[in-house]
Amino acid sequence: MTPRFTLLPTPIDGLLVVERKPLKDARGSLERLYCSLELGGLLGDCPLAAINRTQTTQRGTVRGMHFQRAPHAELKLVSCLRGEVHDVAVDLRRDSRTFLQHHAVLLSAENSRSLLIPQGFAHGFQTLCDGCEMLYLHTASYHPESEDGLDAMDPRLSIAWPLPVSERSTRDQSHAPLDASFKGIVP
Fold first, then answer.
1. pLDDT tens series, the chain, 187 aa
2. Which of 18, 87, 164, 181 has the most crowded CB, counting CB atoms within 10 A?
3. Which of 34, 102, 136, 143 is catalytic?
4. Is there a catalytic annotation at residue 34?
C-alpha cells in the first residue's frame, strides 16, 4: 500500500503536522483524511469517538483556546476543508519541557495539511478569509464538566494572531488570563 500521509514533526513533542497526499486526475481529486492503518497507532488505545465540523463566516474570527481535562482529555486531528486558518496548539502538559509554548501552522483546503494535537494541549484558530470550514476528529466525546479553555489573547501565551481579531464568542472571552498558580494539566 502506498502511504497517503507524511508526518512532519514540530518543535513541540507529540504535536505533528499530517500532510495528506491527494490523488488527482481529470475528474478532480480524492483525499484521505484519516486511515486507521496509517494513523491509528498515533491514537494509542483511544478510538475515534466524535467528528465535528465548524463553519466560520467572518475573516479574522478567533475560536479557542479549548481543551478537555482528564479523564475526558482528547487527541484531535484538525483539518481545514474550506478557506484557510492560522491554527494554534498550546502545550499545557504539566511536566513538558515546552510547557505553555505554542506552535502555529497554516491549514487550508489547498495545502492538504492537518494538525494532530495530543491530549494536554489547548487548540484554537483564526480564520484568514471569509467562509472557513474545519473538520475535527476526536478521541473523546464532548463532556461539558471537563471542558476548559484559555484566553486566546492572554499575553502570557504570546500568540501573534496574523489579523486584527474581528470576532470571538462570549465564552472564549470569559476565560481568565493565566496566573502563576497555573501549573498545567495532566492529560
1. 678 889 999 999 999 999 999 888 899 888 888 888 778 777 777 788 999 999 999 999 999 999 999 999 999 999 999 999 999 999 999 999 999 999 999 999 999 999 999 999 999 999 999 999 999 999 999 999 999 999 999 999 999 999 999 999 999 999 989 998 999 998 7
2. 87
3. 136
4. no
* Domain spans in the chain, listed from the N-terminal domain onward: 5-20+43-170
- Looking at domain 5-20+43-170, its CATH architecture is Sandwich (2.60)
Whether 66 is a known active-site residue: answer yes
Q: What is the 3-state secondary structure (H, E, C) of the chain?
A: CCCCEEEEECCCCCCEEEEECCEEECCEEECCCCCHHHHHHHHCCCCCCEEEEEEECCCCEEEEEEEECCCCCCCEEEEEEECEEEEEEEECECCCCCCCCEEEEEEECCCCEEEEECCCEEEEEEECCCCEEEEEEECCCCCHHHEEECCCCCCCCCCCCCCCCCECCHHHHCCCCCCCCCCCECC
